[in-house]
Amino acid sequence: MAVLPMTIPSRLDELMPDIPGSVFNSAFRLACERLDGFVGALSVELAAELGLGTGEVPPVESLADQRGWKNEGALSLRWLLETLELYGEAERRGDGWRLRGGTPPASSAQLRAEGEFALPATRPAYEVFTLSANALPGILKGQLRGEDALFGPAAMGLWFDYFSNANPHYAPNNQVTALAVERAVGPGARVLEVGGGGGSAALALLDALAKEHKTPSNYVFTELQPAFLRRGVRAIQQVLPGGCDLRSFRYDIDVDPAAQGVEAGQFDAVFGVNTLHLAREVIGTLQRLRALLRPGGVLVVGELLRPTPTAAVHLELPFTLLTTYCQAPLEEGIRVRPGFMSVSGWRRALEAAGFTKISILPAEIERCSEIYPGFYCGAITARA
Ligand SMILES: C[S@@+](CC[C@H](N)C(=O)[O-])C[C@H]1O[C@@H](n2cnc3c(N)ncnc32)[C@H](O)[C@@H]1O
Prior knowledge:
Elements: H1 26-49, E1 55-57, H2 60-67, H3 74-86, E2 90-93, E3 96-99, H4 108-118, H5 123-140, H6 146-151, H7 156-162, H8 171-184, E4 190-193, H9 200-211, E5 218-223, H10 226-239, E6 245-250, E7 267-273, H11 282-292, E8 293-304, H12 317-320, H13 323-327, H14 343-352, E9 356-361, H15 365-371, E10 377-383
Parallel strand pairs: 4-5, 4-7, 5-6, 7-8
Antiparallel strand pairs: 1-3, 2-3, 8-10, 9-10
Helix pairs in contact: 1-3, 1-4, 1-5, 5-7, 8-9, 9-10
Bound molecules: S-adenosylmethionine.
S-adenosylmethionine binds at residues 163, 174, 194-198, 200-201, 223-225, 228, 252-254, 273-275, 278.
């Protein structure tokens, strides 16, 4: 099933009449096509570095056992084999795999240099991937923790650059979610953001609301990590419209809001971008957020959406290195594999949490990912 890399079909645009053409624009396409090629080459190189070479490879658990590799790298190994399959470099054999052991037409270093030259703003995506691939052998040997490799002091700036509206790979997540929230609220809305990170989703939402003259009355910006929280608040303060009251505090989506001083029923909209899949217990977290909404208020879940409940996500490597991502418990029919969830998983979870009127932007996201399997970006809206 070799599908990547590919030229993104132009009919992708026709499948998204509900999203302005400026969101999935030519920079996004070019950025994706270039990064896809790089990820393919990097995967082949990584397999060779790990001594996987050519021929039969047993299932991930047996492979890790044979090599004495640590469990912490198991999800990344699964990512590697599934990604090689997506690029036609591996095929499934029973529970195991057969690797082709091909040589990429160009090295990942060359493809990175060309990609960054064509679109300098994509540098953070290449750097995050390179950092992750370099860390994996050490993580498998138990010499390194993913969190330390990716979130050490030297890497913090990189993450602010990655989760940024200047990054063509990340900006559409924020823009699509901002559109969904903006369309669901009127002027004077009281908005809560969870997992706001360095503030890029907040900036996108405030921009979308300003364009439609829908100044919110309250913006409550929350985040788990104090360093991100401080950075996010500073960014928001620069663009906060007059008449909008800003509050910010540390907030954990896994914990009862009342225990964190947040009163029930006070928001018109609650949203998060690429945060809610990290919930320890998806339905419980959604129920707690629903309780914070006024009746009829809206939750918007901006997420990287897996094309099917078990489909591979070729951009997943960095996240597979993190224990919080790997260890979030599975929930039947909802989170059937660790990490990012599918549209159907979110729909079930939202229904189970008592939400109604569930819709997705772009509405045809599943058809989008059928014609371009690297298309993962969507926002799900649900009413309390
Ligand atoms: C992918 S980042 C989101 C980036 C952010 N939305 C932005 O626009 O820049 C995920 C965020 O979720 C936060 N997070 C992780 N676990 C969390 C939890 N239990 N409660 C709240 N936030 C959490 C992380 O600290 C991180 O900032």
